[in-house]
Amino acid sequence: MATIREVAESAGVSYATVSHVINNTRLVSPETRERVLAAMDALNYRPNALARSLRQGKTNTLGLVLPDSANPFFAEISRSIEDEAFKRGYSVFLCNTERDTQRELFYVDVLSNRQVDGIIFVAAGDQADSLDFLLHRNMPVVMIDRNLSNVEVDAVLTDNQLGGYLATRHLLELGHTQIACIAGPSSITPSAERIIGYRRALEEAGISYDETLVLRGDYHAQSGMDITNSILSMHPRPTAIFALNDLMALGALRAAAEAGCSVPEDLAVVGYDDLEIAHFTNPPLTTIAQPKKAIGVQAINLLVGRMSQKNRPPSRVILPPELIVRRSTQPHASEVEVP
Ligand code: RIB
Q1: Pocket perturbation via mutation, ligand 1, pick of 65, 66, 68, 71 by most ligand atoms within 8 A of CB
Q2: pTM
Q3: Is 273 near ligand 1, meaning CB less than 6 Å away?
Q4: Which tens digit of pLDDT belongs to each residue from 70-85?
Q5: Is 217 a pocket residue for ligand 1 (Cβ < 6 Å)?
């Protein structure tokens, strides 16, 4: 591979002039710039990114650690983050941990050794070991989506309790009183917080919380389908299902269809995330929208700010969710008056 010295000799300029052309660190005459660029092209010269990073003390790269890159929610989040990072001149390395905390530790070690300038992190579970590792190495980190309460770190979260409340209150206002909940994994905070909101809305309407109506899924569509089959065999049968993410709600729609149970006439279904696919289900899915674009923008803002002010106190941004009513819910005759 050609060196800067060979480019300088070929263009008849100094080493420093070639370096200024590559790094835009000093004004160079158009004629000289053109000669240097022509020599670089003729010699097929490529600047050594690693050498430049060592000189500048930054790599203009970020790490993004996600627990399930096959889940469209994280695909849409990673697009928001990558869009904003690209605007700021950063490339993003995506690491999928498959909800495995050992794999998470492996990836944070790799990213740290590759000298990324900062990391946006979604926890695989409820362990803070990976975050502790990064903070110990003075790596700028922003935690998004899932909260780990025992670490002092910048975070962009959404108000999951409000989301659970809005979904449940919507069903109550339609007259549903037997509302089953398909929950997510117990090891992560969003599911637990959404259940708190679900319970608050029920009790506000004078309906006792019945834990037999809260069944544990794994955020995958199959678990939503399997659990809905169980719900459809309950007596009395719930008239509504609140699934704590859209993928499990898709499974619920499939189970209802296979059981000859019409949505929303016989069974109302509400999801959570507002995936792009939620527009195209049959019927289109009523759900709770997470502000995915805002999550990406806020996460990059906090991370870039942390890079320049490593000692400032951690910030917590809590973004509001939004109820999106489509055609998987409709009024249901009931005697309950929602206050
Ligand atoms: O669909 C995946 C779920 O896990 C989302 O609701 C998101 O909030 C994450 O916690």
Answers
A1: 71
A2: 0.86
A3: yes
A4: 999 999 999 999 999 9
A5: no
pLDDT digits (tens, 9 = 90+) for 148-157: 988 899 999 9
Would you say the CB of residue 76 lies under 6 angstroms from ligand 1? no
Token pair recorded at residue 141: 């980190």
Residue 186: what residue type? Answer: S
Q: Are 121 and 94 in contact (CB under 8 A)?
A: no
Average pLDDT of the chain is 94
The CB of 193 under 6 Å from ligand 1? The reply is: no
- Residue 127: the pLDDT is 86
292 touches ligand 1 (CB under 6 Å) = no
Question: What spacing in Å lies between the alpha carbon of 94 and ligand 1's midpoint?
Answer: 17
Give the pLDDT confidence of 99-135 residue by residue, as tens digits: 999 999 999 999 999 999 999 999 998 889 999 999 9
> Which residue's structure tokens are 């430049």?
52
Q: Give the angle subtended at the CA of 242 by the CAs of 238 and 244, to the nearest 5°.
A: 145
pLDDT of 334 above 70: no
Question: Which residue, by CA, sits nearest to atom 3 of ligand 1?
Answer: 245
Q: Say how many Å lie between the CA of residue 35 and the centre of ligand 1.
A: 54
Q: How far is the CA of 51 from the centre of ligand 1 (A)?
A: 39
Residue 259 has pLDDT above 80, yes or no: yes
Nearest residue (CA) to ligand 1, atom 6: 245
- Using a 6 Å cutoff on CB, does residue 321 contact ligand 1? no
